[in-house]
């Protein structure tokens, strides 16, 4: 968002004029419900324009009886221990190959909840909008969010919108809290020596696709974000009664960071075995820009630590789900090097996988 | 935040050097746990520096077993229907007379939950930090948030941190979701003709104090934000078994907007009776800057719609709480002008209170 944008202005009345496209977003559809083309500070003021946003954009997009109830919050009937996670989404660009910040916010949130062993039931959404954001862009992103939520079987039950001045934001930030019902206790403290490490699919697609799109680099054929709801696949392992110790999605910091963190937290060694699944186009792109795909974020993958006797069954269950159809066994929890994660090469040499240092890939989620 | 700031740099080792003060925040205390003076993109990268923020700042400030558990989210044992609200806090300046964005985020969230008839039990917090924010500022705000949460009897059970580049944020934005247990069903649909309208105290202090501080205008003696946790006072009405129809806090848009919205939603007339309680220093300051205090946000006030036979008892209960010690009766639900709110002057003339149009007071919460 740059400062040379014209100030927002009423559109004149008939609602059918074309809206000037915003090169950043590449959108040009009009917003028939609004006299404005762009977000103004008044859209966050709590008055008429805030009401218009809520009534004519958020409510139809989210189809939520809780939002219709018009309370300061929502009431939910949730069984079992309630699980809750929260995430702020600041990805740039707002729309990227394979997704956008709206669908990503849903996928990232329901996945985090599934990683807690919980079935996602409801979301809340807080929007921080930058003055001057085209309303058509906001509409597209909110609709995408609504569609992703419906596909994931969750509803947005409460929300908030704030508007900050031009130059104090970056179009849209979305903070989402996900609520769900705990199915099973999983966590790093349950990891045992001998557990098998399963991965739902190839790593690094999301971060690589977002980075290339942001930098304007050519995107290889077929390279798109893996952003997806993995909760049905992950929860299927729990529903089958398998001895699942720990679930984790390799977002910021990627697979290597997850392995290093879970080794440290469990106090056991975690050994991953090469070759780890990385799509050739992801490997090529990472080599081009100097990234290690094992440290690049995914938004539609997860790691499952499973007792050895249940590993084969777990793989079969995962592979029955489209998001995990190529799920491989990628490693094992070992008694050696307690607290440390390693990668063992095909020739048997082991190297330590450390936590990510520095920030090679900002703003990918 | 301006672009001329020097890039963040390690501090050299002994951790005892003074940190250069940031004029915006007016803080100069060092951050002994960090080699950095300012937030860097790597603090949001999911690696070592993110871990340092979590382990050495957020965990001590929030004292939360759920955060210590190190899951992707938290598990909570909540009874009754779960109530949930969400809000993004973008107030500027970050520190204002009578509070800061950290304590405000707690007060605003627990108050919203109380307005749903629910006892606050847990919070989640998502931070969007701007690269270059002094870590000493972040530390002060996070500690303030932790103190406010402890005072309100709630814990921060899950969190997230993202860092955006300089010029893409405004220091700190905090999105909070509050979870609680529903004590009683309240809402606009329960409002009946004859209900009395009670107000917990004078209006307009918060918005006026923030505005004057932001604009660098002189602050009259005693004019500070009313930011406070009103949940004990509000929930005491429910615990006493009174016929409370609806609770609402006059934040964005102020008391007039609340009256207009609740009139519209209930389908009844809402008549407020002058004089409404406004501190003289608030009235003077509002006159100076051309604002109507009835449209100015509070963050430590609320309105209760109560059946007429319970109104006196409700006032007595409110006045037993420090945050509501001067609570007056301010109006009544009437059969005339259905769906419309009015203000009746002391001479008996009624004027319509409309929804706020435009945005006279951005970024006050």
Describe the structure.
Two copies of one chain form a homodimer. With 365 residues, chain A is an alpha+beta fold. Chain A has two domains: 41-182, PurM-like, N-terminal domain (60s Ribosomal Protein L30, Chain: A), CATH 3.30.1330; 188-352, PurM-like C-terminal domain (Phosphoribosyl-aminoimidazole Synthetase, Chain A, domain 2), CATH 3.90.650.10. Helix content of chain A is 28%, strand content 22%. Chain A has helices at residues 48-62, 65-68, 101-115, 135-151, 205-215, 231-239, 254-266, 280-289, 311-319; strands at residues 74-76, 82-89, 95-96, 99-100, 118-130, 155-164, 172-182, 196-199, 244-248, 269-273, 303-306, 329-334, 341-344, 350-353. A seven-stranded mixed β-sheet of chain A has the order 9-11-8-12-10-13-14. In chain A, helix 1 (48-62) packs parallel to helix 4 (135-151). Chains A and B meet through helix 1, strand 1, strand 2, helix 3 and strand 5 of A and helix 1, strand 1, strand 2, helix 3 and strand 5 of B. Strand 2 (82-89) of chain A pairs antiparallel with strand 1 of chain B.
What is this structure, in a nutshell?
With 365 residues, the first copy, chain A, is α+β, with helices and mostly antiparallel strands. Chain A has helices at residues 48-62, 65-68, 101-115, 135-151, 205-215, 231-239, 254-266, 280-289, 311-319; strands at residues 74-76, 82-89, 95-96, 99-100, 118-130, 155-164, 172-182, 196-199, 244-248, 269-273, 303-306, 329-334, 341-344, 350-353.
């Amino acid at each position: 968002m740059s400062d040379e944008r014209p100030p927002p202005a009423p559109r004149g009345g008939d609602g059918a004029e074309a809206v000037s496209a915003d090169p950043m977003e590449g959108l040009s559809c009009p917003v028939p419900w609004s006299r404005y083309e762009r977000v103004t500070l008044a859209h966050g003021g709590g008055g008429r324009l805030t009401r218009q946003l809520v009534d004519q954009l958020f409510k139809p997009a989210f189809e939520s009886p809780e939002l219709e109830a018009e309370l300061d919050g929502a009431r939910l009937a949730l069984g079992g221990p309630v699980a809750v996670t929260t995430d702020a989404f600041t990805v740039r660009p707002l729309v990227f190959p394979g997704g956008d910040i709206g669908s990503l916010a849903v996928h990232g949130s329901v996945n985090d909840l599934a990683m807690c062993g919980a079935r996602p039931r409801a979301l809340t959404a807080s929007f921080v909008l930058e003055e001057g954001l085209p309303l058509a862009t906001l509409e597209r992103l909110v609709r995408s969010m609504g569609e992703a939520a419906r596909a994931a079987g969750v509803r947005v039950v409460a929300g908030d919108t704030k508007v900050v001045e031009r130059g104090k934001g970056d179009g849209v930030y979305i903070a989402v809290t996900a609520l769900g019902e705990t199915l099973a206790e999983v966590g790093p403290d349950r990891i045992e020596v001998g557990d098998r490490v399963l991965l739902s699919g190839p790593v690094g697609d999301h971060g690589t696709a977002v980075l290339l799109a942001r930098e304007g680099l050519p995107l290889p054929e077929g390279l798109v974000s893996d952003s997806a709801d993995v909760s049905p696949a992950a929860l299927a392992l729990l529903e089958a009664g398998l001895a699942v110790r720990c679930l984790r999605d390799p977002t910021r910091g990627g697979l290597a960071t997850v392995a290093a963190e879970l080794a440290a937290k469990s106090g056991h060694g975690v050994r991953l075995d090469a070759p780890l699944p990385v799509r050739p186009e992801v490997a090529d792109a990472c080599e081009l820009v100097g990234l290690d795909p094992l440290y690049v974020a995914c938004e539609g993958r997860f790691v499952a630590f499973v007792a050895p006797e249940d590993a084969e069954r777990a793989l079969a269950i995962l592979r029955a789900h489209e998001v995990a159809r190529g799920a491989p066994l990628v490693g094992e929890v070992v008694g050696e090097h307690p607290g440390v994660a390693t990668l063992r090469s095909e020739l048997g040499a082991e190297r330590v996988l450390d936590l990510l240092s520095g920030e090679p890939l900002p703003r990918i989620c």
